Amino acid sequence: MSFKPVATLISGLSTQDGNRVPLTRLVPGRGQDGTEAFRAMDPFLLMDHFGPMVLPPGTDAGFPPHPHRGFQTLTYLIQGAFRHRDSTGGSGLLQPGGAQLMNAGSGIVHEEMPVPEHLETGGPIEGVQLWINLPRAEKGTAPGYRDLQPESMPWMALPGGRIRVLAGTWMGVTGPARTPARIAYAHLELEPGARFEHALPAGWTAAVVPLHGSIRILGTTVPADTVARLGAGDGVALEAASPVGLMLLAGEPLGEPIAHYGPFVMTTREEIEQAILDFQQGRMGQLN
């Protein structure tokens, strides 16, 4: 197997989103033009590591109603809880170790807010949200939402660590998230000195993203909240330089034009303008 070296290191950008939720924006990262970063990580558009933080009692920190069109969101919760509601009538509880896959498709309005217990008592929250582009032919599909409960993607023990598979196949386990774009996505935890190796399809975009701790990839050290975009090869090999929790990310590029404005990702500027108009005129629905 020819292991992929680190081609680019992208440092995450500390920011806030929603109602004062601190996060690190990993894709697109610091020092890159947004559009170029989108192309560089095709089919992945955005990746946020939100938290870790402790919500104080009475907080309303979360993501109040906002629209999306033209892509999918895959939100994975490491600790805490969020409740989801959307304009299609979809609702659910996002729990630790669980995820939600939302197809924005032709347009959706949704919110992700703390559960009532957190509003009363506070509590920890941490997770990762990934935006996955839809092929142009799928951008007009009906929006929808699916809960991925923790029991549908349990931890699997590995030498010196464990892995939870969200999408695609890792270590012989296939995750429950199904997307039109072909992707493979997993949460990996390793003890110091533990190694992990895995084959990856040639030609796919691939990255390793430590959330906590650091790793080494063929001699390159990758610290926390940094995207290690991988180069040519047909596999990944990494070693934990400390106790580490990281996301493994791979996907087949769509190779299609991208027009992006805020919560909308289409293929032309005219489609973006139409998305803005449709939202303003209520054609993406509303939360009741």
Give a short overview.
With 288 residues, the chain is mainly β.
Brief descriptors of the model:
Jelly Rolls; seven-stranded antiparallel beta sheet; mainly beta; about 10% helix; about 290 residues; 3 helices
CATH fold call: Jelly Rolls
Largest sheet: 7 strands, antiparallel
Low-confidence sequence ranges: 31-35
- Give the DSSP E fraction (strand runs of 2 or more residues): over 45%
- Look at the helices and sheets and give the structural class: mainly beta
Which CATH top level class fits? Mainly Beta
Give structural notes:
It is a single chain. The chain is mainly β. The chain is built from 3 helices and 26 strands. The strands form 6 sheets. It has a 7-stranded antiparallel beta sheet with strand order 1-22-19-24-17-14-13, with no helix packed on it. A hairpin with a 3-residue loop joins β2 and β3.
Helix-strand layout with pairing:
Layout (H helix, E strand, L loop, with lengths): L5 E6 L1 E5 L3 E7 L6 H7 L3 E12 L7 E6 L2 E9 L2 E5 L4 E4 L4 E5 L4 E7 L1 H6 L1 E11 L10 E5 L7 E3 L2 E7 L1 E2 L2 E2 L8 E8 L4 E5 L5 E8 L2 E3 L2 E3 L3 E5 L4 E6 L3 E8 L7 E3 L2 E3 L2 H12 L8
Antiparallel strand pairs: 1-22, 2-3, 3-4, 4-11, 5-10, 6-9, 6-11, 7-8, 7-10, 9-12, 13-14, 14-17, 15-16, 17-24, 18-23, 19-22, 19-24, 20-21, 20-23, 25-26
